[in-house]
Write a structure and sequence with these properties.
Strand content: 25-35%
Structural class: alpha/beta
Helix content: 25-40%
Number of helices: 8
Order of helices and strands: EEEHEHEHEHEHHEHEEEEH
Largest sheet: 9 strands, mixed
Number of strands: 12
């Protein structure tokens, strides 16, 4: 981990590495940091060949860039409303040698469609959308005093604006992938009932003998196929270390 120059409002910025050191990220030392959630979400995406991915609420670009690293022909668009995080996302595109494969759009996913389009987000133009939305409603958790962490964890509204943006951005038959708290599954399924099918649900457990802490959910736009509940993914063994499957996913050697 090394220090890098940064916009002052974000505080100290460091360079971290994920996916066995192959993914380099400039991100704030304090506040929200990329980690397992982003890696699991990137690993849940299909091959997509030379397709296009929209990473919504991208932060410093972790999900989109991890997906692009695992899929060398993939082109990614990183949508982030915080202009300084968007600046770091642009740095991270260059840092990982993806200047020809990634762009950043500095805009709010909850903005009106016309505003998003004027920012460069064209409708029906993506093969896949990935999102890691804020996990908690207002008052649902103790909000962090660090602005970027608070924005990443505490939602200003419900999921519908995020899902509406996904419906608008995806091509017919395109795939949406979301990671969220396990408790949010009923709300997720209710939101996906409009416009999506082929819903798959993978519970994610911190350890095998405890309740799931996350769900990774995928859905296909305009599909009518029924939902599937997939086998659980377990992050850590009873010894506190990654399971073999988890280790492979975190190294970029396996998919979810």
């Amino acid at each position: 981990m090394s220090e890098v120059k940064t916009p002052l409002a974000l505080g100290e910025i460091v360079e971290d590495r994920l996916l066995d050191g192959r993914l380099r990220l400039h991100q704030p030392r304090k506040g929200h940091r990329a980690g397992t959630d982003a890696i699991l979400l990137a690993a849940a995406l299909p091959e997509l060949d030379g397709g296009t991915l929209l990473d919504v609420g991208a932060g410093v670009g972790t999900v989109g860039l991890a997906a692009a690293l695992l899929r060398p022909a993939l082109r990614v668009t990183l949508l982030e409303r915080d202009p300084e995080l968007a600046t770091l996302a642009r740095q991270n595109i260059a840092l990982n040698g993806m200047a020809g494969r990634g762009i950043v759009i500095a805009a709010d996913v909850t903005a009106p469609s016309a505003q998003l389009e004027s920012a460069g987000l064209k409708p029906a133009s993506f093969d896949a959308v990935a999102m890691n939305p804020p996990f908690y409603p207002q008052g649902g958790t103790r909000a962090s005093p660090t602005p970027n962490r608070r924005a990443a964890h505490v939602a200003e509204g419900d999921l519908e604006p995020w899902l509406r943006a996904a419906r608008r951005a995806l091509k017919p038959g395109g795939l949406l992938a979301i990671i969220h708290r396990a408790e949010a599954l009923p709300d997720l399924l209710a939101g996906l009932g409009s416009g999506f099918g082929t819903v798959t649900i993978r519970p994610v457990h911190g350890v095998a003998d405890r309740p799931a802490i996350r769900v990774v959910v995928t859905a296909v736009l305009n599909s009518r196929r029924p939902a599937e509940l997939l086998p659980a993914f377990v992050i850590n063994g009873l010894d506190g270390r990654f399971t073999a499957e988890s280790e492979a996913v975190h190294r970029g050697q396996a998919r979810l």
